[in-house]
UniProtKB/TrEMBL annotation:
InterPro entries in the record: Catalase, Catalase_AS, Catalase_clade2, Catalase_clade2_helical, Catalase_core, Catalase_haem_BS, Catalase_immune_responsive, Catalase_large_C
Region (Disordered): 515-535
Protein name, UniProt field: Catalase
Stored CDD domains: GATase1_catalase
EC code(s) of this entry: 1.11.1.6
Catalytic activity of the protein: 2 H2O2 = O2 + 2 H2O
Stated family: Belongs to the catalase family. HPII subfamily.
């Protein structure tokens, strides 16, 4: 290397040295160098009051965070969306004046985007993570966005900490590893030192974080909102989406393998279901609470780390959403859609939940950087179905051609138009809530219970679900290198359950807790997926057969499966046609090279007359893997020999018979059951 080259390199290093900053051991400041005395709470009018616009530190922190990624979303980057409609069951006039919730004959167009929260656009679909569930209603009063997740609570209570939690679960900044996973030191260090996250962590470590399908997961609005009726009376409300197919999940080993076998598993599945006319359906449910009951519970209803137990405040199902059309262009629609919890219509209003208050600022700020300016509402996917008129002009991406001289309010040249609308004319009027208090950065005392509902969640789980949670903690913390962080997490979750903390402490080599525990015995059956709907509809069954299969009987089984909404796909030695007795021919969908057992919900084994050692070996592995994932297995004719020789024929959820009527009936029941957790693995 020449001396000149060395000089140039040294000069570059010297230039870079000026920009290298080590924050360790320093006092926290704003970007202007102002030392801050508080970084946990936004500035509010009273402990439970709304966040104040005056909070320059909050705005700087959120603004910087919102602009950290271009062009993909900072969170929810990987998404998939579809069009559809929503229809109310009966008028909700008693509770809200929102027009789209009044007339049962009206179908309101919707656009729904499902997403992964953590990973980048290239992340696999089946990682362990919360899922976004955002719905845009195109109503005659304007767009209403219900922007939620498949988990009803969140990590934090105050939006000023949103950048912190996302920084913690994103890839570690020194090496950009891992992507789409929270099995890392930084995330669990955040958890241990921000214990308000306990309840959310229980959900993330549960089966809810690895859904079987977008079509089989619940959606939640997370925050407490308000309904306001025509008389001005307000009610507190929480929103739920209930899937028609029930709430179902993958097992962890299955989810990991799908990430490699088909990283587009979730988006591919919902796309294909809509294309074949099997439309996903979700019922909209609401929990409604009278204002005078705001303080009657042991938790604060404005705390986003708390849910409202459905047994205490029932969910009223008020309408159905059907997704019936895929997008025409992924970028123009799915990528450019802009959601915002502040996009509301008359009859829907906000509360002083400090996390919701932060989102009301943050979402617009995010769209400005991601979509290039203030006119993102003019993109076709975001444009309301009703006309819009105001004095906002110009800017990046402007499409509207405004005519006339006037672009201000008040004016006389245009008769002071566009003019405001009265409440009777449909004008939006904010709910008048009395707010008073000292300007303060603090957390309400009613927000300081971090463990009771985490314990409620644990108590509500079935035995298999509890084992899955223990395994999830053991996996995630088993990847953590810092022993102190591991121990801190063990000690933290001893406050949730000694059984839980002791179990995963032993698995990760930490010291089991010597104290802690919880006296809470309450359960909420609605939290366990054991109590969800169980239907065979849209389940996917692998049918393994070769030439010489019993044509008549297999045809009968396939017809019965189809009649019950089950999708069967044929797996054989090679693609093309496979021939059975009686002149029956079937088209082969896959070989073992092009598919895998983790991509199916059940297996039907027929076999046939093949003596191929490779086919028999591949089939045996395929079947056994499905068996170890607790899936239903069915076998007739020569297929029974495979199950008997492998010693799994007597397993729970294994149906074997040559009586086709009995077999199909029992096999369909087994498919509906989804998993057989009491199966003894061999």
């Amino acid at each position: 290397m020449s001396d000149k080259r060395k000089i140039n390199e040294n000069s570059k290093d010297e230039q870079l040295e000026f920009f290298r900053v080590d924050d360790q051991g320093k006092k926290l400041t704003t970007n202007q160098g102002l030392k801050m005395a508080e970084d946990e709470f936004s500035l509010k009018a009273g402990e439970r009051g709304p966040t104040l616009m005056e909070d320059f530190h909050f705005r700087e922190k959120l603004t910087h965070f919102d602009h950290e990624r271009i062009p993909e979303r900072v969170v929810h980057a990987r998404g998939f969306a579809a069009h559809g409609h929503f229809q109310i069951y009966e008028s909700m006039k008693k509770y809200t004046k929102a027009k789209f919730l009044q007339n049962p004959t009206v179908k309101t167009p919707v656009f729904v985007r499902f997403s992964i929260v953590n990973g980048s656009r290239g992340t696999a679909d089946t990682i362990r993570d919360a899922r976004g569930f955002a719905t845009k209603f195109y109503t005659e009063e304007g767009n209403y966005d219900l922007v939620g997740n498949n988990i009803p609570v969140f990590f934090i209570q105050d939006g000023i900490k949103f950048p912190d939690v996302v920084h913690a679960f994103k890839p570690e900044p020194d090496n950009e590893v891992p992507n789409g996973s929270t099995a890392q030191d930084t995330f669990w260090d955040f958890v241990a030192n921000n214990q308000e996250s306990a309840h959310m962590i229980m959900w993330i470590m549960s089966d809810r974080a690895i859904p079987r399908s977008f079509r089989m997961m619940e959606g939640f609005g997370v925050h407490t909102f308000r309904f306001v009726n025509e008389m001005g009376k307000a009610y507190f409300v929480k929103f739920h989406w209930k899937p028609a197919l029930g709430t179902h999940s993958l097992v962890w080993d299955e989810a990991q393998k799908i990430s490699g076998k088909d990283p587009d598993f979730h988006r591919r599945e919902i796309w294909e279901e809509i294309e074949r006319g099997v439309y996903p359906e979700f019922e909209l449910g609401v929990q409604i609470l009278d204002e005078e009951d705001e303080f009657k519970f042991e938790f604060d209803i404005l705390d986003s780390t708390k849910l409202w137990p459905e047994e205490d405040i029932p969910v009223k199902l008020i309408g159905k959403m059907t997704l019936n059309r895929n997008v025409d262009n992924f970028f123009a629609e799915t990528e450019q859609v802009a959601f915002h919890p502040g996009h509301v219509v008359p009859g829907i209003d906000f509360t002083n939940d400090p996390l919701l208050q932060a989102r009301l600022f943050s979402y617009t700020d995010t769209q400005l950087i991601r979509l290039g300016g203030p006119n993102f509402h003019e993109l076709p996917i975001n444009r309301p179905v009703c006309p819009f008129h105001n004095n906002q002009r110009d800017g990046y991406g402007r499409q509207t051609i405004n005519i006339g001289k006037v672009n201000y309010h008040r004016n006389s040249l245009a008769g002071n138009t566009p003019s405001t609308a009265s409440e009777q004319e449909g004008g939006y009027v904010h709910y008048q809530e009395k707010v008073e208090g000292k300007k303060i950065r603090a957390r309400s005392e009613s927000f300081k219970d971090h463990f009771s509902q985490a314990t409620l969640f644990w108590n509500s789980m079935s035995k298999p679900e509890k084992m899955h949670i223990i395994d999830a903690f053991s996996f995630e913390l088993g990847k953590v290198k810092n022993e102190s962080v591991k121990q801190q997490v063990v000690d933290m979750f001893a406050n949730v359950s000694l059984e839980l903390a002791t179990a995963f402490a032993i698995n990760i080599g930490a010291v089991p807790p010597k104290g802690g525990g919880s006296d809470i015995k309450k359960t909420s059956p609605a939290l366990s997926q054991e109590n969800t709907k169980k239907k065979p509809d849209t389940r996917k069954v692998a049918v393994i057969l070769t030439n010489g299969f019993n044509g008549h009987d297999v045809k009968l089984v396939l017809e019965k499966l189809k009649a019950n909404g089950v999708l069967a796909e044929i797996i054989s030695e090679r693609q093309g046609k496979v021939r059975g007795t009686g002149g029956i021919e079937l088209t082969v969908d896959h070989t073992f090279l092009t598919t895998d057992s983790v991509l199916f919900d059940a297996v039907y084994i027929v076999r046939g007359s093949s003596d191929s050692k490779k086919f028999n070996k591949d089939a045996a592995y395929f079947i056994y893997e499905a068996f170890t994932h607790y899936k239903p297995l069915g076998a007739t004719h020569e297929g029974k020999q495979w199950l008997e020789s492998d010693g799994i024929g007597d397993g729970v959820g294994v149906v074997m018979a040559d009586d086709m009527e009995w077999f199909t009936s029992e096999f369909i029941k087994a498919i509906a059951a989804h998993r057989f957790w009491n199966r003894k693995l061999v």
